[in-house]
Write a structure and sequence with these properties.
Strand content: 15-25%
CATH class of the largest domain: Alpha Beta
InterPro entries: P-loop_NTPase, Phage_terminase_lsu, Terminase_6C
Keywords: Viral release from host cell
Number of helices: 16
Protein name: Phage terminase, large subunit, PBSX family
Structural class: alpha/beta
Helix content: 25-40%
CATH topology of the largest domain: Rossmann fold
Domain Terminase large subunit gp17-like C-terminal: 287-428
Number of strands: 17
Length: 447
């Protein structure tokens, strides 16, 4: 049976059971765009193109269909060649792409040997064997990882999160005759380097550009689509739901609604978990936020806020530890009943807290991911705020995107009036977001 006919058949009735994992997958019919991704490299009018770019909303069915088509293309067109595959980090690529991809390939009769120490996949079928090197493209230094290697193709997952230097170096490695490039991503700003250099120049780059929305993923029900739509607002809704390359501008948390999110916490409300998130400053303000969980909702119960610049007197680490002790005792807690989340750059304060007997977790300082997770938590009603958190509530109205950075294709908050906002983000990204990702270990088909 011809390859294209086989692929169409897979899209309609394909069910596979992985021999090694014993995990079964039931595939829904592919959408037209998914079928185009699967077959473009054999289409008479498209096969001469040198790249494919898939962008658009989250859960749109592009990630795994891209990676599967990439492997099918490589194993059909080449034998004994080397290929590249990359995510923002190797860990995220393994988690988001490789785990499910390997199961599907095993179910289709491919032999897949994963050398995790060297991050090389050796894939064989029908007398052909090819080698797939896995890279992480998280920063400028990542370009050094791909120097010197000769490749027949490269698949970039989350390409918009990678530095241009890494993508340029990786694409330059694809010098084998017939090599092709595969790019998959969610949108960023309209001045992002990938938008201006690749999407806007798709014809010049001989690239096929396919734009996805959640409606292009037949496996999603309307209920699931609506849940994702509720999660996002503002710029994140435009990018991750509508799939648009739009600027970050104005108020960051434009979804903040004091009527529904701010309340007087009853004295008799009980909390089964307690955290304190801290943004530590020298001359800049230091902010503590006390968090308590009641059923499934986390409440910012109270705040401590001190500005050394405003008072013209900066407190020492020892003085801030004493302030922490009073803050904890004020709410009937002790050192064993609370975990403190601190900006990882505040090394001396972290040491002082540990010496005092507190349990301390270092915050994850991924600003944009943290902002997105916080906005989603607000939309879902996962966090609410006590009226006593006056500085936190005030900062919601002044925490804005940096317009100058947006014109350079970067998403950055203005570094003013952001100290309680940072403490808020540290908590959400470390506690709420971490628990969600820990529980979501089983990947969904076509995520």
């Amino acid at each position: 049976m011809p390859l294209i006919n086989r692929l169409i058949l897979y899209g309609v009735i394909w069910m596979s059971r992985a021999v090694r994992s014993k995990v079964s997958f039931k595939f829904t019919p592919f959408s037209n765009k998914q079928m185009q991704v699967l077959t473009w490299w054999r289409h008479p009018k498209l096969k001469e193109l040198e790249a494919i770019i898939c962008d658009g909303s989250v859960r749109a069915g592009k990630t795994l269909i891209m990676s599967l088509s990439y492997i099918l293309w490589a194993m059909t067109e080449f034998d004994g060649q080397q290929f590249g595959m990359a995510g923002k980090t190797i860990g995220s690529f393994r988690r988001n792409v490789l785990r499910t991809l390997k199961i599907i390939l095993w179910g289709r009769g491919y032999k897949v040997h994963d050398n995790r120490s060297d991050n090389i996949l050796t894939i064989s079928k029908g007398g052909k064997t090819n080698y797939f090197f896995v890279f992480g493209g998280k920063d400028e230094s990542s370009q050094d990882l791909v120097q010197g290697i000769t490749l027949a193709g490269f698949f970039f997952d989350e390409a918009a999160l990678m530095p241009q230097s890494f993508v340029n170096q990786a694409t330059a490695r694809c010098s084998v005759d017939g090599s092709k490039l595969w790019f998959n991503m969610n949108p960023e700003g309209p001045y992002h380097w990938f938008k201006t250099e690749w999407i806007d120049k798709a014809a010049e780059k001989m690239a096929l550009h396919i734009h996805f929305t959640m409606d292009d993923n037949p496996s999603l029900t309307e209920k699931v689509k609506n849940r994702y739509k509720r999660m996002y607002s503002g710029v994140f809704f435009k990018r991750f739901i509508l799939g648009l390359w739009v600027m970050s501008e104005g108020i960051i948390y434009d979804n903040f609604d004091p009527e529904t999110m701010v309340l007087d916490i009853p004295d008799d409300m009980r909390f089964d978990k307690n955290y304190i998130s801290v943004d530590y400053g020298t001359l800049n303000p230091t902010a503590f936020l006390l968090w308590g969980r009641n059923f499934k909702t986390w409440y910012a119960r109270d705040e401590y806020y001190y500005s050394g610049r405003k008072t013209q007197r900066q407190k020492t680490d020892a003085e801030y530890v004493e302030e922490m002790n009073r803050f904890v005792e004020k709410h009937g807690l002790d050192k064993k009943s609370v975990t403190i989340i601190v900006d990882p750059s505040a090394a001396s304060f972290i040491t002082a807290l540990k010496n005092e007997g507190y349990t301390v977790d270092k915050a994850k300082n991924d600003v944009i991911d943290g902002i997105r997770a916080t906005a989603a938590a607000m939309n879902e009603g996962a966090i609410k705020f006590s009226r006593t958190c006056k500085n936190l509530i005030q900062e919601f109205g002044s925490y804005t995107w940096d317009a100058k950075a947006s014109l350079k294709g970067e998403d950055k908050p203005i570094k003013e009036h952001d100290h309680a906002m940072d403490a808020l983000r540290y908590f959400v990204f470390k506690v709420i977001y971490r628990k969600q990702t820990t529980l979501s270990k089983k990947p969904s088909w076509l995520s």
